[in-house]
Amino acid sequence: MFEPHPIFVEAWESLRKAMVYFHGQPVGTIAALDDSDEKLNYDQVFVRDFVPSALAFLMNGEPKIVKNFILETLRLQSWEKKIDRFQLGEGVMPASFKVLHDPVCSTETILADFGESAIGRVAPVDSGFWWIILLRAYTKSTGDTSLAEMPDCQKGIRLILALCLSEGFDTFPTLLCADGCSMIDRRMGVYGYPIEIQALFYMALRCALDVLKQDAQGKELTERIVKRLHALSFHMRSYFWLDLKQLNDIYRYKTEEYSHTAVNKFNVIPESLPEWVFDFMPSYGGYFLGNVGPAHMDFRWFCLGNCIAILSSLATAEQSSAIMDLIESRWQELVGDMPVKICYPAIESHDWRIITGCDPKNTRWSYHNGGSWPVLLWLLTAACIKVGRPQIARRAIEVAELRLPEDGWPEYYDGKSGRFIGKQARKRQTWSIAGYLVAKMMLEDPSHLGMISLEEDKDTKRIF
Q: Domain 7-454 adopts which CATH fold?
């Protein structure tokens, strides 16, 4: 039996203190319990931040807060969303919301942010995907299908999917996105087709198949989803995948190829390959690239996108094992003294100035620019369990337990190996706490994995 760690109880106490109530009902958890004067926007409920908290509550047999959160964000989706006179798509989910208390009138109201208050004013593409994934997790965990079957929930799913399945000028099945539209919420050169959004897109489509009612509208949408899944999985597995063989093929690419027979479909110039990638790529192992577009490949490693690729079965069994091989081979670079690097390597010098816009928070090996984020423990653990390599997760958790409680559960860590508490990191960060709890509970009871993991979907072949 897996022995609970002494800090497990402390973590649960902190998570409960982070709960937010609206009209006496729990509706989420605030981003951080930091007592510092400069709270900024850490006193509200972020959709993506709440996901590990939600999973922890579901695994602990406490689904009420998750149900309330799903319904409340669904209500917010129906709001009119305008930014500088421009109206956002009907299906956009909020990035965050806060509960405002008026002690004079004894009233409570909710204020939502759809990107109009966010740093950089970027709408969150990932919020809608996380919402669908969480709805499916709630249904799998509780066995209660009535929530997902509610007409309002079905409409919410359809509105989200209408946004991302809409036809346009794009020739790829991937989703075109702005910089800062996901967990990496500041300029980091991930605009275009970032792996994080593509993997979440794929997973949300898979989860939607589980929760959509098969009425007339549902069947028509299911057909569109299945077609997109086939195209998206082919594209990602073919063009976003990198291992030693593929790296060598790119190294030998010919350019200016025209016609359907082109091997170098995106016209990537071999001289654009960064020097570090040749040393980083082990003999055995591989990963999904950060981004692929015309004349450009972002060779950086991004943890969230690769873990979601495993959990959603966007990665094949062979690719999933190869990602684990890479993590083991490059343990010091990707895990080091604090799991887990959000991306690797950091952008430095001239590239940093151009790509990040001289962002002082994203200096090298800090924050989103090669920082280490404890919240990613739950994703790493889930991926490890799915691939049958739980020992990798156990090793990472043991590393984290040496410091997380002592350091006050920081938001992120700085430095090449994650030795330093982030220079602007908030303490008692809720998703650092929840990510640890989810990782521990999944290791103790791997059956929890079912609510957040999808096996290779053979049903999608039924239409073809």
A: Glycosyltransferase (1.50.10)
